[in-house]
Amino acid sequence: MLTLYGSYQQIIVGVPFGTKPGSDSALIIITLFSFSFVLLFQLLHLKTTIDHSKITIYFFPFTKRTLHWSEILRADIIDYGFVFGWGIRLTHKHGTVYNTKGRIGLALQLKNGKKLIIGTQKRTELAAFLKENKLPLPAPN
Predict the structure, then answer these.
(1) In the predicted model, what is the mean pLDDT of the chain?
(2) What is the C-alpha to C-alpha distance for residues 16 and 7, in angstroms, rounded to an integer?
């Protein structure tokens, strides 16, 4: 808001903003960057689709990832605690964490040794789906 006010004061009204005013172009760039940052957080969302064959993680606008149940060794619903903000986090304990809200998630241990957590707001539905479908399926002998 301050950058918008400063841009208005300096560019539209013609009154220099601050004791050491920057150039008009610098003020415009800072204002555009600020609005872009706010817009990014408004657009940011995590959509996870789980069915009998795969899990699709769509973390807009950054990534889309599909994991087939055959790649997953173990799946548990856990309280992973605070991971220093929302977004995509790389942690030593949990591997890659995809979250936008809360602290409950689907923890996956992949057969290749990697770990990841997908945040969820639908703990009960997810637990029922996993239990009903006995997922992940055990590897064939």
Answers:
(1) 87
(2) 9
- pLDDT tens digits, residue range 12-67? 888 888 888 888 888 889 889 988 888 887 888 889 999 999 999 998 888 899 99
pLDDT at 30: 87
**How crowded is residue 136: how many other Cβ atoms within 10 Å of its Cβ?**
21
Report how far residue 47's alpha carbon sits from residue 69's, in angstroms, rounded to the nearest whole number: 18
Q: Could you tell me whether strands 72-79 and 63-68 are parallel, antiparallel, or unpaired per DSSP bridges?
A: unpaired
φ and ψ at 70, to 5 degrees? Answer: -65, -15
User: Would you report the helix, strand and coil content of the chain in percent, each value rounded to 5?
Assistant: 35, 35, 35
Q: How far is CA 103 from the centre of its chain?
A: 12
Alpha helices in the chain (DSSP H): 2-7, 24-43, 123-133
What's the CA gap between 12 and 107, in Å, rounded?
53
Separation between Cα atoms, residue 114 and residue 17, nearest integer Å:
51
| Residue 27 burial class via C-beta count within 10 angstroms: exposed 0-12, middle 13-18, buried 19 and up | buried
- The CA-to-CA distance between both ends of the chain, in Å, stands at 62
